[in-house]
Structures are given as C-alpha cells and as structure tokens.
Design brief:
By secondary structure, the protein is an alpha+beta fold. It has 5 helices and 12 strands.
Amino acid sequence: MAEIRRLPAEERGQLASLLNLHSPADATAAYYALDHPTARLELLVEYSGNGAPRGFLALAQTGLDLFRRLAVPFAAHPLGLVRLLQEGLRPGQPVLLLLPTEQEGWVEGLLDLSEGRVLDVFRLHTAHFQPVLNVLVVASEGPDGGSRFEIRTATGAQASAGTNWRGAYYAEVYLETDEEARTRGFARSVLAAMAGQLLSERRIALYRIDELDAPGQAEALAVGFRRSGERTLLAQAVLRPDAGGAGT
C-alpha cells in the first residue's frame, strides 16, 4: 500500500530517478527536489507498495513570497497528488502552488485557489539566441548569489533580469521592467544579458510568462526564447478544512 513520508535531506538524491533532468518539463521540480537549500525545504514523498518513490511534494521558502511557501508537486496520478497535498498542507494556511495546467482538475474540491495566473514556459534556443549590446547594462550580484543585470536611467526608467533558481542544466529567469524601459528596449537588453550569462555557465534559461503578457512574449521571442509546450498554473492555494489529512 502506498504511503507518504517526509524525506531526510541526505536522502533526497533518490528522487532523481523520477525525473528527466534534461527536460524543461521536469526542470523546476528537479531543482526544488535536488538543489534547493535544505534549510528552506520540506520534502514529502509518496512511496509505492514495494518501497520505491513515485511522487513528491516540495515545500520551499523562496524569494517569491516571504510569507507563503512555494508548493511544487510532482505526481503522476490524481490520488498521489491529493495524498501529498493533504499530508503537506494545513487547512487555512496559504501556499503558492505551481502546478501543470492539466492537473488543475485533480485538486478540484481539495483546494481553494485564488490569484491564479496561467504561465507559458519558454526555453532559450541557442540557435535563435540574439545577444543585445547595450553599454547601459550593469552586472551585479543577485540575492541567490548569481549574476543580475539591470539598467537604471536618470529619467527613472529601470529594467532588471536575474534568476529565481539555478539547477544543474537549467535556470529560471525573471524580468522586472517599467513601461518606459520596455519601450526603449532596455527590458530586452537585460533579458539577453541574463540569458547569455547562463549560456556561459552551460545552463539553459527558462522563462515563465503570463499567457496574457503579449509584450513580454514578444521580448522573449526576439531574444531567442521559444515555447516549450509546458503551461503551469501559479495560484494561492488553501487546503479546505474538510479535506485535511495527516498534515492537519
């Protein structure tokens, strides 16, 4: 019979067998399962009857939100996902849930979802990469210890690009910009600088873009990003009081 157990940090390597480390579809789950700092991570694993892991839930403290943990499940079937969330979440305590869009129906009736956004996952294709030379781009160190690139002008325009996480093969980039910086091409400049830096580190940039953000998608395409075919839901999730499991 399947069971859910918390995984000690020193045993997290066993989860690698579940993941395709070279696939953009598994890259985020792989990072949080294998590489996120252990002091800021809780891992719950679903084990099959023969004792082999077959799914997990990563609950991570991140810079995305200081008050809500990021919940990243990796489950192959609806019952496994439900069991992991019941065990890992507490009723009334919100988390940020990152979930493949095709699995949203699996949590219907289990979670109250709000603030939801559908994000398209773009992957940098090296054959299409277009570096941008802009002398205004300044490199600095980001909160994760990696590189960050930004432009700030006397008029107040600003754009910056960095990484949410860096894994063995992939890294997820973010872009922060205002309208003036976007109009003047600064957003594209810092995004290209960040993508180029990751290429020099032998990592491929992934970029989640809101499906309604047409300007952001245009910038990504111009730099050399292409849709990976993966779409994720990012939403606040709260376990319903009548749906709690052992985590209550």
